[in-house]
Specification:
The chain is an all-alpha fold. It contains 15 helices and no strands. Helix 3 packs antiparallel against helix 14, helix 4 packs antiparallel against helix 5 and helix 4 runs antiparallel to helix 7.
Length: about 375
């Protein structure tokens, strides 16, 4: 439930980015600063959350951070100006960053008691929450809800779900900080390559989560009520992919999952860029979700097997790079999009539509191509 609530709240506010731009009269680049402000808060909070979990356990931290994230999200709709919005976003970022770490720590505790790997199922719940959240956002827009009342309603629903579910969290004990042993290095070639693979994958995930609603309205020309369906297509396909990911890996192998998933994501985002029609974009972003769905679990699994490092150290090193890419990738796409628009003479475009955002999402296609080459030529992906 905690993973699903995270995805639910996240999808509802990112689905309304077009309305957020209207409220504060900002462009893609300024929206990038909004996303980066949230990312900075989350990245500052993540190491602190890890320290606090080692000292005190994850239960209390998960309870507090989840409720703070739920209750703080509507604030973004009620700031007096753009500068105030930039001030409140890091505060929301701190809560979501701490929540990510704390509920993942709880999932590890549950997995120990469960007796077999189930972490991918928790991440599937996040994608499922995003799918439901994007659909809910489309419904709120159709009903004429403005951003503020929309987010307040979602926060009220999420609070009720949280009060029910969080009371069942486990009382985990504080643990000792893991350290590497056996002469391994956190910055070995294997870790660097896996970190690069994580970066490519999570930039794609972040871009789809944050920019698809704006792409639908500004490039594909869809009405605002239809825009969240692209995000729903992405997150729904990712949910299905993760739900059946373990079965697929056992039949096809990890290397085939990474290469095939990267190619599928590359084809999907390319279709959306080259044929910017609402129906094509929705289908293309769904292909991206299915392609990316199991790449992070495979990469993290490989990180746990790096010789000379404890599993937790390898996963921590690679996941830090991945989370940074997930948070900072979308703002970079916003900056690239506005820079590209600024360089184009009036009326000049290679394709019809808003050229800049298409170039920005082109970075996702480029990273998927890099990931294919990386996996085939350099990265060892073994079962």
């Amino acid at each position: 439930m905690a993973f699903a609530i995270n995805g639910l709240v996240y999808a509802n506010w990112t689905s309304r980015l077009p309305r957020l731009q209207q409220l504060y009269d900002i462009d893609n680049g300024e929206t990038g600063f909004v996303l980066m402000a949230l990312a900075l808060g989350a990245l500052v909070a993540m190491p602190l959350a890890g320290f606090l979990i080692v000292r005190s356990g994850s239960r209390q931290l998960a309870l507090i951070s989840t409720l703070v994230f739920i209750l703080s999200a509507p604030l973004m709709a009620y700031m007096p100006n753009y500068l105030a919005l930039l001030v409140v976003m890091p505060l929301i970022g701190v809560s979501t960053g701490v929540m990510d770490v704390a509920v993942n720590a709880q999932s590890v505790e549950v997995e120990k008691l469960w007796g077999k790997p189930i972490t991918s199922s928790f991440h599937a719940c996040f994608s499922g929450g995003m799918f439901v959240g994007a659909g809910a956002a489309a419904g709120f827009i159709s009903l004429g809800f403005d951003l503020g009342p929309h987010l307040i309603t979602i926060s009220a629903i999420s609070t009720l779900l949280a009060v029910y579910s969080l009371r069942h969290f486990l009382y985990d004990r504080p643990g000792e900080v893991e350290t590497g042993e056996g002469g391994g290095s956190k910055f070995s070639l294997a870790i660097i390559l896996l970190g690069l693979a994580s970066l490519c994958t999570m930039v794609g995930e972040g871009a789809m989560a944050d920019w698809t609603p704006l792409y639908m309205t500004r490039v594909a020309g869809s009405p605002e009520a239809l825009a969240p369906l692209a995000q729903a297509s992405f997150s729904g396909a990712m949910f299905l992919g993760r739900a059946f990911g373990d079965f697929g890996r056992s039949r096809l192998g990890s290397r085939a999952i990474v290469v095939g998933g990267s190619v599928l994501a590359l084809v999907g985002v390319s279709l959306a860029i080259l044929m910017p029609e609402p129906e094509v974009a929705i289908a293309g972003f769904g292909m991206v979700g299915l392609g990316l769905s199991n790449l992070v679990p495979v990469v993290f699994s490989q990180a746990s097997k790096v010789p000379g490092l404890r599993p937790g150290v390898g996963i921590s090193s690679v996941s830090t790079i991945g989370y940074a890419a997930f948070l900072f990738g979308p703002p970079v796409i916003g900056f690239v999009s506005d820079y590209q628009n600024a360089r184009l003479p009036a009326g000049m475009a290679l394709f019809p539509g808003v050229e800049g955002l298409r170039v920005g999402l082109g970075l996702v296609a480029l990273l998927m191509l890099v990931l294919v080459v990386l996996t085939v030529a350099f990265l060892r992906v073994d079962d």
